[in-house]
Every structure is written in structure tokens, then in C-alpha cells.
Design a protein that fits this description.
The complex is a heterodimer. Chain A has one domain. Helix content of chain A is 35%, strand content 16%. Chain A contains 13 helices and 14 strands. The chains are: A alpha+beta, B alpha/beta.
């Protein structure tokens, strides 16, 4: 296939590809430009339609994406968004997400190259979530919602095609995890008794934001507890496990709290900050539960923070209570989700403009 | 034939070149950045001994990171850059 010159170099290149759809799909697979699923062909017309949804110029550099540090221009973000099946008006969300992922505290280089099963979880807050139909209710982490499925998928294609993190090459994940295909939801702001995540982080309620999180899994916490103290106790007990990255390096774990569980906490008189503080205290774990190697790593990583660490030391899951993230999401049901973190990554929130 | 966009991005424009070549280890100062993975310190200790006893390296300076997935502190980078002729960064377990 011969390349069709495009100018200048900051612009993406058009290439000739087969007309036949089956052959075209294979064309993308063969170049490792897909995530293993068929992609929507990023034709000039589709990409131009997507670019019409932002006032930004196509060659504007948003960020360089670790670990390959490919240039994520607006145009290249749009190309990958088209491939993922995104609707044209999703583009500003992805631009903000790329900005967020490039913040140093997110440690994208570590997230992309690690052996850990880390996905970038994309959370959408504010009015744009409803405008675009991003699901924060029933099955918000599951299948069936176009915005959730395709926004998360587009982010993965950006991480792979612009960041260069191909599985088995720069992406060194031992097993990876299903969230690496797509991991995106909104907050269920309407059914939360507390301030929304973006408001907690200093944005106005009517501003729209994305938050990116280095997430290492989703663990179901099914409990019919109707008492806040009881609920705190069982969630905290779930958080503390000796193979968690959060305890050896002081991480940033998240609770995706169902509206029912959030209401139990609220009825018990607890604010979101109260819940974080209570969980932080109750989830301290004895260092003696760790394998000897992890105890040694913890002593290296956290002695500056905690002083001398022995098998009797009670390790907090994060440096402070504010290091625990809480998002109210999901529909009816007695399920909350524990999201252990990569450990050495801090979530980042950026406004969608 | 149809035309589609290449979804990848070119690599960064500037090639990273070594500041200067090191042809001989004799009398040189070698740095190690311990990535804090288990046993890297033991490996670095053995290599340091070989470098000094067999290859005439003058000094070996070892500094550790807090964890493998985080960068060395600027203080460590500055110190090693100022004192070393070459630096080995730890990788793997």
C-alpha cells in the first residue's frame, strides 16, 4: 500500500487501503492499529465530521502520550475516536482526557508499561454526561451504552496508537484486564446525597469534567448492611488485602458506591469526607499480612512516610483519608465496587471545553 | 482502493544521543539507580564488585528509587549526572 503524502508533517497521513470491508478490517489488524475488534474506517469524511465538533485546529498538539510519546494532535485523537465508533460530539471529552492523562502525577508511563493489570478509567461529570448519554446508572460499567463503550475504547486506541503501548511490547501487562478494552462511566449525580466528584475538586456543578484513574480491577462488594457503621466495617475489611499495590506504596483506591449504600452512609450522618476518614482508619492493615518481599518493598517505599515499619505496623491504604476516592454510580442494588489502584498514580480531573 | 488515516503518531523528532561515548572503564565513576525491585540491589552489588576488581572502575555510586514505577528524584539525577561517567538504570525483577 503506498502512502499518500499529506502536509505538513504534523498532519496525519492518508494511506490507501482495500475497499472490501472484510479486507479493510484485516488491514487494520495486520498493522496492529486495532484493539482486536473491528474498527470503523477513519476516512477523510468521518474525521472531518468529528473535527467540526471542536474549534481547535487539527494540528494542535494536546499532549505527547507516554511511553512512546507520540504526538496526540486534535486530528489524531479524532481519527482514533472514529475508529472506536464515537459520535462526533464526543471529541471534546477525549481531548480533555488526553490532557488529564499527560499530567505528571498520573504517571502514564508507569501505567502503560507496567506488568500490573491497570486500565485507565474515565469518569465523566457535569452536564455533558447527560448531553452525550454517558451512563452513570444501571450497568454503567457494563455493555450496552454507546458513549461508555466507545469513549473508553477510543482512549485505549489512543494509548496504543499514539502512546505506542502495544501488548507484549511496551505494554508489559502479565494478564491485563477487560477494562483495557473500555472503562468509562458517568457519576450518578442525580442520586448521590453528596457533592459530585468534580465539585469536590473545585469545579462548579454546571461545568463538565473528565477524571482519569489508574484502576487495577473491579471487586464486587455485595452487602445488605443498613447501618453506616456496619457498612464502613465491611467495605474497609474488603479494602485490606496483602497483595494490594495500595498498601505497599500508598495508593489511591476508589469506592464506586451504589446509590443505596451512599444513602445508608448519608442517613448515618456521614458526609463524603467523613466516609473517607472512617474508611481510612478502619482499613489499616497489619504489615505482617504481607509476603516478606512486599514487606521489604514497603519498608523501602514508605519509611519516609511512616517511620520504622515492622510486621506489627498498621499500614494505611493511602497517605491520608483524602487519598481514597468515592464515586456514586450504578443503579438499584446492594452492590458497591472496590477499585484497587495502580498505586503510584494519582487521578487527574480536567474541564471539558 | 479507499483512503483511510494512519492512526499512529510518529516518534519524537529528536533522536536521543549519548552525551559522550565511554570507551574504557578504567578510572571511571559508575552510577546505579536501584529501581527498588526485589534483588536488584544484590545484582548491583555483584556488578559493582566486578567493575571495580576486573575493569578498573574507580568508584560505584548506588542510589535507590522509592518504587520501580516512579522516576528518580531530581536530587539523585543531579548528583549522578555531576559525578558519574556513566549510569546504569535498573530494570526488571
Amino acid at each position: 500500500m503506498s502512502a499518500v503524502p499529506a502536509t505538513p508533517l504534523t498532519r496525519a497521513m492518508l494511506v490507501e487501503a482495500p475497499d472490501d470491508l472484510d479486507e479493510l478490517i484485516e488491514f487494520f489488524h495486520a498493522r496492529r492499529w486495532s484493539d482486536g475488534l473491528p474498527v470503523v474506517p477513519p476516512t477523510r469524511e468521518r474525521v472531518e465530521r468529528m473535527l467540526s465538533c471542536t474549534p481547535r485546529k487539527p494540528d494542535e498538539l494536546i499532549a505527547k502520550v507516554a511511553p512512546g510519546f507520540g504526538a496526540a494532535t486534535v486530528e489524531r485523537i479524532a481519527i482514533n475516536a472514529v475508529m472506536a465508533g464515537c459520535r462526533a460530539d464526543y471529541l471534546p471529552v477525549l481531548i480533555a482526557a488526553v490532557q488529564a492523562m499527560a499530567a505528571p502525577e498520573f504517571n502514564l508511563q508507569g501505567i502503560q508499561a507496567t506488568t500490573n493489570p491497570v486500565a485507565v478509567w474515565l469518569v465523566v461529570n457535569g452536564p455533558i454526561a447527560e448531553q452525550l448519554g454517558v451512563n452513570g446508572g444501571m450497568n454503567c460499567l457494563g455493555q450496552g451504552t454507546v458513549a461508555n463503550a466507545t469513549l473508553g475504547r477510543a482512549l485505549r486506541l489512543i494509548l496504543q496508537n499514539l502512546g505506542g503501548a502495544l501488548p507484549g511490547e511496551m505494554d508489559r501487562a502479565t494478564q491485563g484486564m477487560p477494562g483495557k478494552f473500555s472503562f468509562c462511566c458517568a457519576e450518578n449525580e442525580a442520586q448521590s446525597p453528596w457533592e459530585a466528584l468534580h465539585v469536590e475538586r473545585g469545579f462548579k456543578r454546571d461545568q463538565s469534567t473528565v477524571t482519569v484513574i489508574g484502576a487495577a480491577g473491579t471487586h464486587n462488594m455485595n452487602t445488605h448492611a443498613k447501618d453506616a457503621d456496619d457498612l464502613i466495617r465491611v467495605i474497609a475489611d474488603t479494602m485490606a488485602f496483602p497483595t494490594s499495590n495500595d498498601y505497599w506504596i500508598s495508593g489511591e483506591p476508589w469506592i464506586i458506591m451504589s446509590p443505596e449504600h451512599a444513602e445508608v452512609m448519608h442517613a448515618g450522618g456521614l458526609s463524603k469526607a467523613d466516609v473517607k476518614r472512617r474508611l481510612w482508619e478502619a482499613s489499616k492493615m497489619s504489615a505482617g499480612r504481607m509476603a516478606k518481599m512486599e514487606l521489604a518493598r514497603t519498608q523501602t517505599a514508605r519509611s519516609e512516610e511512616l517511620g520504622t515499619i515492622t510486621t506489627d505496623t498498621l499500614l494505611p491504604v493511602s497517605r491520608g483519608p483524602e487519598g481514597i476516592g468515592i464515586l456514586v454510580a450504578g443503579g438499584p442494588g446492594t452492590h458497591s465496587v472496590y477499585v484497587a489502584s495502580f498505586g503510584d498514580a494519582r487521578s487527574v480531573t480536567r474541564e471539558v471545553l | 482502493m479507499t483512503q483511510v488515516y494512519d492512526p499512529t503518531a510518529p516518534s519524537p523528532e529528536a533522536l536521543q544521543n549519548m552525551r559522550r561515548a565511554v570507551n574504557d572503564l578504567s578510572g571511571k565513576v559508575v552510577g546505579f539507580i536501584d529501581n527498588a525491585k526485589p534483588n536488584f540491589n544484590l545484582l548491583a552489588d555483584d556488578i559493582a564488585e566486578l567493575l571495580t576488581t576486573r575493569f578498573g572502575v574507580k568508584t560505584v555510586i548506588k542510589r535507590a528509587k522509592r518504587g520501580a514505577s516512579m522516576p528518580a528524584t531530581q536530587e539523585v539525577i543531579d548528583e549522578l549526572a555531576a559525578q558519574c561517567d556513566l549510569v546504569v538504570t535498573g530494570s526488571g525483577d
